[in-house]
Amino acid sequence: MKTQNISFTQMSENCQVPVSSLKRQFHNTSLGIDKISYYCTFLNTDILQLSVVAKKLQHFNTKAIPENNNITFAQFPFLYDFIYMLSSLKYSVEKIQKKHDLSDQSISHYLRALEIMGYLKIIEKKRIQLKPSVRFITTENTPLDTLFVERFKNHQDKYSIRPNVCIAQVKLTEEQIVQLESNLYDQFITFHNQNLVREDVEFRNVCLSIVPGLDVKLSEEMPALEGNILQEVTALQNATYESLKE
Question: How far is residue 159 from each of residues 24, 231, 242, measured CA to CA in Å?
Answer without folding.
Answer: 50, 38, 35
